[in-house]
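User: Please fill in residues for this 104-position structure.
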């Protein structure tokens, strides 16, 4: 497995850059990663990312946007605003999870 290094952090990733060892993630690392995609993480961003991590730990799968809305209570439109572009993919990457199955 390739290892990425960002600042003082090192973490194992798959061929697409998604974490393979979720426990290597931290909020501080997420903040560093977010600067690479020009996002400054706020409490709103972190609430979504932490929900994703908690849900993935419980279900064994990276949650979909529909699940973020139905179970987590997040509004999809707001998630698109918080994480512009490839929203779910970026959220999974920033939360230290594997690439969502629904993403190509």
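Assistant: Residues filled in for all 104 positions:
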């Amino acid at each position: 497995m390739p290892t990425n290094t960002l600042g003082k952090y090192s973490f194992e990733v798959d061929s697409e850059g998604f974490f393979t060892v979720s426990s290597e993630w931290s909020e501080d690392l997420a903040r560093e990663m977010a600067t690479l995609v020009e996002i400054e993480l706020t409490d709103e961003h972190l609430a979504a990312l932490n929900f994703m991590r908690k849900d993935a730990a419980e279900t064994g799968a990276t949650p979909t946007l529909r699940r973020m809305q139905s179970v987590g209570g997040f509004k999809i439109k707001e998630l698109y605003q918080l994480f512009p572009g490839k929203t779910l993919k970026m959220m999974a990457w920033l939360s230290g999870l594997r690439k969502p199955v629904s993403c190509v």
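For context: The chain has five helices and two strands.
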